[in-house]
Write a structure and sequence with these properties.
Strand order of the largest sheet: 2-1-3
Shape: elongated
Order of helices and strands: HHEEHE
Number of strands: 3
Oligomer: single chain
Number of helices: 3
Number of domains: 2
Helix content: 40-55%
CATH class of the largest domain: Alpha Beta
Length: 147
């Protein structure tokens, strides 16, 4: 160890008289520091990595042991507004034309389903004709009922 320290000191002394010797001396000291502590740093880095791996892995196991959560119930339906169109008793009828829906289309902001042609014309007022909740043509979703 003493021989290594003496060799390092001789190198630093040689650099002192040269151009940019100070910068080279700092870089040489940094290289010696990294070389001296690389083994300890590597062990510490592996330990820290394994600790983080365990920490996050145990949290995931705890969450997965609980099992899946139940599906929450749907939100309550929006009630018709005063002055809005009444909802027909038969859910298969369009609230606007009172006929069986053709090309059923959902107004996503209110949750009500209408005929596409009926709601496309009615949405120009920028609100649902039943609930008066704001909406636009972009909120219309075409539905494809199963057969």
């Amino acid at each position: 160890a003493a021989e290594l320290a003496a060799r390092r000191q001789r190198r630093l002394t040689r650099l002192a008289g040269r151009r940019l010797g100070g910068l080279r001396a700092v870089l040489l000291r940094l290289a010696h520091l990294v070389g001296d502590h690389s083994r300890t740093s590597l062990v510490a880095a592996v330990f820290a990595f394994k600790l983080l791996e365990w920490w996050y892995g145990s949290g995931e196991r705890a969450l997965s042991d609980r099992g899946p959560k139940p599906v929450p119930p749907p939100p309550p339906a929006l009630v018709p507004a005063k002055g809005g169109l009444p909802v027909p008793e038969d859910p298969a009828l369009c609230a606007l034309c009172r006929k069986p829906r053709t090309n059923p289309t959902l107004l996503a902001t209110s949750g009500y389903v209408f005929c596409y042609a009926c709601i496309h014309d009615a949405i120009r007022d920028r609100r649902c004709p039943v609930t008066f909740v704001p909406g636009s043509v972009d909120d219309l979703w075409r539905l494809f009922p199963g057969e």
